[in-house]
Design brief:
This protein has 353 residues and is α/β, with parallel strands linked by helices. It has helices at 32-40, 47-63, 70-85, 92-110, 115-145, 171-180, 197-208, 221-226, 252-261, 293-296, 337-346; strands spanning 5-8, 11-15, 26-29, 151-156, 184-190, 212-216, 232-235, 239-241, 246-249, 266-269, 275-276, 297-298, 301-302, 315-318, 325-328, 331-333. 41% of the residues lie in helices and 18% in strands. It has a seven-stranded mixed β-sheet with strand order 6-5-4-7-10-15-16, with helices on both faces. The protein binds 5-S-methyl-1-O-phosphono-5-thio-D-ribulose (MRU). The site of 5-S-methyl-1-O-phosphono-5-thio-D-ribulose has 17 residues, from helix 2 and strand 9.
Amino acid sequence: MLPTIAREGDVVVMIDQRKLPAQEVYVRCKTAPQVARAIKSMVIRGAPAIGVAAAWGIALGMRRSAATGTQKFAAEFQKTCDLIAATRPTAVNLFWAIERMKQSFGTGAQAGESVDQIKDRLDREAQMIHDEDVASCRAMGAFGADVVPEDARILTHCNAGALATAGYGTALGVIRGAVEKGKRVAVFADETRPFLQGARLTAWELMRDGIDTTIITDNMSASLMAQAKVNFVVVGADRIAANGDTANKIGTYGVAVLAREHNIPFYVAAPLSTIDLRTLEGSHIPIEERNAREVTHVGSSQVAPTGAKVWNPAFDVTPHRFIAGIITERGIFRAPYTESLKQAFETETATPR
Ligand code: MRU
């Protein structure tokens, strides 16, 4: 499995996703600020992977703390959490992971644990978040595989693969699950301007697995669908509101509208850590705006006039009415999402609908 992120002794190692596929190089983070920079600069990206990196960043930061008293240690912990929280605003997995680390810290502090014991507990919590993410992806893959057509021609947008998680992937996990179940699968990967996660990362990942992959530029999907060359769409998510509205990579909304027009089922695959019941609808999801340079340049080449105005939102919101189902580690949930998503959290064994 692809080594997206790993803890090795007192460092966190990440494959540098800005450099793929041209170079396979690894970034070694020794401090929490280094992990925060890695998240912000997209060394590591993809909602679940960002959550895992956040947890490791906090554990690493606190492991290096020189504080001996619990009060000073608690103050440093809060500062570290704030630093990590200020990296990227849209993927709710980041805030979910910070919350888990805070809860773990609180449990240790309440039990009167020493600074060293709390450091160990934070390490264990980060490892749990990491391992649970891989397990969730595998479960999503198994559930999602059932709704993939026998002879599937799947369109996906951005990269929701092993690189975007601790391993296996969400949308690409569903694709891998279908392949493991013996379905015939061909994938179309949207290039995904401006950061090119589809062309650079999804194609790289799937080709390594020997899965038939064709790259298209983002403006080609309408034609592809009109020619009946796609019969299933699956994407990941950065934040799913309580009513099912889904924030994902910019361009996802357009793909969903096109899929509806061509009667192609459009599925979202995401772990429960991406579902934010506190955000009632998509219009309340904060959307990150990124640097103009991502639009004016391709790699190091400038493709727009110097000084041109740029709008560069990293995500858009797909209204829930376009979504055929949300594939999670607890099954596939369908409209009305306000009820089904709440139910997903209520029981460990929610029956897939
Ligand atoms: O800006 P990115 O690359 O972090 O955006 C990633 C996406 O939009 C993914 O589709 C989403 O995080 C799901 S990843 C399993």
